[in-house]
């Protein structure tokens, strides 16, 4: 039986810009040196085990007894200033709980999300996308991250949650700081205040929205619990959705063969999304669990109370899948699997697919407005996120 060493060889730092610039090369080097379990640092002095084996990840994600998602023992030793703490700390919600508590939160969230009318959501996305494109199509240039993907994700999620724009902007700003690990503590405070105001607003003025349905849930969530449900919904709804849209558009822009099949309808936009979710998912490393006891798995000892982080990107691209005749792109783990699988998958697909289809229809001659090598990626252990996606296109009359 072996244990992953702490300093010899050194842990892989997932927070550095070098990792963000070329994570696939890093995953390949990790696999060659360590196999499916890699000792990493999520931030300076914050060790974790990164799982890069597909089979091992599926077993962990489906084993809530040995691998619960409750971090309370782990975080006792973590300083409040730790930049990744807001992304990992205990919250009374489905993402960071286990057992009966998880079942209670999961049921409340699933019910509130399942009540979203898909036809009304589609109409909302169409309207928001058309308005967003109209704001830049006469310029001949745009940053598709800042001017297209982000405002669409923000406006639609705020509408679904019944959140006024002013509150939503503060929530989104706080969430961005948390994902990047830069001013994360300040971002966490900003986020907490804003979601608390949203809860108070919808308690006094309920509407036909996810927040109001959560408040009315049989789970009888108190104000603190409500705030933490909204943190999870915003965390899953703005940053990852923005980056899914952006990363898919990048794939279409730079891969000529792939772009040709999309434009000729040989490949659907849904297939393009799945290709990106398989190869470069917007949430690259997450699905964190905290084993309460040491666990021996495939010859490696996973220490008690040390985070076990699933690398969805590395697991999706595990060579063992190809060697074993893997089941294709839609077998990817980018929505997670098991008891913590994403309950809003259909909504995210609808929003991203509709947004990309309408953009390609509106601006079919769009090209990347810089060399591919000049594109930069935001550092951070968890996400796969561009800093910008500049494009140019012929100026045309509004549709």
What structural keywords apply?
399 residues, alpha/beta, Cytochrome p450, 5-stranded mixed sheet, 3-stranded mixed sheet, 18 helices, disordered N terminus
CATH architecture: Orthogonal Bundle
Query: Class by helix and strand content?
Result: alpha/beta
The overall strand count is: 11
Count up the helices: 18
Unreliable spans are 1-7, 324-328
* CATH class identity: Mainly Alpha
Helix content: 40-55%
Mean pLDDT: 91
Give an overview in words:
The chain has 399 residues and is an alpha/beta fold. The protein has one domain (2-392): Cytochrome p450. Helix content is 51%, strand content 10%. It contains 18 helices and eleven strands. It has helices at 17-21, 23-34, 54-61, 72-75, 85-88, 99-114, 118-134, 145-161, 165-180, 184-204, 210-215, 223-237, 239-254, 256-263, 269-279, 312-316, 319-323, 345-362; strands spanning 2-3, 12-13, 37-43, 46-51, 141-143, 285-289, 295-297, 300-302, 308-311, 367-368, 390-392. The strands form three sheets. It has a five-stranded mixed sheet with strand order 2-3-4-9-6. Strands 1-8-7 form a three-stranded mixed sheet, with no helix packed on it. The chain has a three-stranded antiparallel sheet with strand order 5-11-10. Strand 7 (295-297) and strand 8 (300-302) form a beta hairpin. The longest helix has 21 residues, at 184-204.
